[in-house]
Amino acid sequence: EEEVSEYRKNLAIRVSGFDVPRPIKTFEDSGFSPQLMNAIKKQGYEKPTSIQCQAMPIVLSGRDIIGIAKTGSGKTAAFVLPMIVHIMDQPELEKEEGPIGVICAPTRELAHQIYLECKKFSKVHGLRVSAVYGGMSKFDQIKELKAGCEIVVATPGRLIDMIKMKALTMSKATYLVLDEADRMFDLGFEPQIRSIVGQIRPDRQTLLFSATMPRKVEKLAREILTDPVRVTVGEVG
Ligand code: ADP
Ligand code: MG
């Protein structure tokens, strides 16, 4: 009996907000392009995880979201797949005017994992992803950014550097993801996050993911998200 209740606890899903789109059961339910469906199959993803079932229709409908789920629950695809759809829906952008999608993560390692996942799904539509974190010289980074990209995956510090150096502009960015928000706060990136958010147009779509929701993160979420839907999977936050 104990085991069963533990299992239920891990599966517990709580959703709050107005007019919440219904969860999907399969990737097909999301109406992804055939190219994207192929990439999903190629990744070996047969069906969406709990957070993906709940979050993807919400994000695809254009709503802001707070997603709270533990590590390993598949949060990356939950924001990357709808981001590809969001970008493909935008009018053709001119070079040097990107990015449209901006993803911030706390560390270089985490940002790199997201970058790899983004590449797998973005290349089927010819979208360009730039990695904005340590590991590449700033000179090469600036050169790459100036060539143009639709998606940037960044750590907050390096992103601010690149904005300051005018290597990229946030004027076309309409899809902002703050991944592992609690860890970004733990690492002291709150001022950088606020600065980045302040440079992105207020009519953007904002997604905040976190394993836990400390009061400081909750406060930021209240300030920067518009009528968010909150999805909690499992006994976290
Ligand atoms: P989180 O960000 O929640 O910690 P990740 O996005 O890193 O989780 O995903 C954890 C692992 O699950 C990764 O190896 C990823 O490739 C895999 N994964 C994600 N979605 C699915 C899916 N729908 N089916 C099978 N595996 C998946
Ligand atoms: Mg993650």
Task: Describe this protein with a few key phrases.
10 helices, 237 residues, 8 strands, 8-stranded mixed sheet, binds adenosine-5'-diphosphate, alpha/beta
How many beta-strand segments? 8
Unreliable spans are none
Shape: globular
- What kind of sheet is the major sheet? 8 strands, mixed
* CATH architecture label name: 3-Layer(aba) Sandwich
Q: Which ions, cofactors or small ligands are bound in this entry? A: adenosine-5'-diphosphate, magnesium ion
CATH class category name:
Alpha Beta
| Helix run count | 10
* Whole-number mean pLDDT: 92
**Rg, nearest Å:** 17 Å
β-strand amount: 15-25%
User: Within the CATH hierarchy, at the fold level, what is the topology?
Assistant: Rossmann fold
Structural class assignment: alpha/beta
- The largest beta-sheet arranges its strands as 1-8-2-7-6-3-5-4
Family: Belongs to the DEAD box helicase family.
Protein name: RNA helicase
Motif (Q motif): 25-53
Domain Helicase ATP-binding: 56-231
